[in-house]
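Structural biology now treats backbone shape like a language. To illustrate, our science desk offers a sequence and the tokens encoding its fold:
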Amino acid sequence: MSDQQLLGYIPNQTVLHRLSGAAKLICFILLSAIVMVGYDTRFLLAVSLFSITLFKISEIRWHEISFVVKFIVVFSVLNLVTVYVFEPEYGVQLYGNRHLIWEGIGRYTLTQEQLFYGVNLVLKYTATIPLALIFILTTNPSEFAASLNKIGIPYKISYSVALALRYIPDVQESFHQIGYAQQARGMETSSKGKLKDRIKGTAGIVMPLIFSSLDRIDTITNAMELRRFGTRKKRTWYAEEKFKRIDYLAISLVAGMTFTGIWLFAVNDGRFYNPFV
């Protein structure tokens, strides 16, 4: 195994680790949905602070997520830049006002409305990214599959989801191993090389990674077929856990936050909180 931290389940004894996988899934879906749909800045800020607090409680360390966070940050910045490039006054259209900050060049101006819209997008990322990382890093795949099956999802689908969660660190490990092999052949993929050489070296990892992944999938499929997986309508679970009081409390809390977000739709006469009125 490489010395890089792999993005997968990390055992611990925090309150978030003790929540059942199904409870965490329900909470994650509810909060992510209301955050993605709504644009009330006050609500987004509150959920962002809530997510950051949960992240602190989960005791996830920076070196365990640094790579994926940097990747997400780059993607988020590109998304913000793309929004501005294609529609530099989209915020003006949304909020119905135009308060100019910078005249700019041609149609590329900077307005308070566009800046405010960009802040909302940043808050959406800040609210949802920690939740996704918490879900992945604190959820035991086997227990999660059992929880999904318990709430009515067919066990074949539940087991597929569990395999996908287990497969994330495997893919990362293969990526690093292939990268080290490429470096041994003189292809630069480390941070010491030039950007052009690193891009070229990383591109050379893709095809071997795809073929190794397909080979692993074929091995797992054959093993499951040999064990007659899917021949029965039901199955038992070794890691199954019943809903506990803490699960109901967590779902109730998140449901309350979700209904608050929905209530704000009525308060704002729509999805957007408009301070420019």
The mean pLDDT is 82. The chain has ten helices and two strands. The longest strand covers residues 100-105.
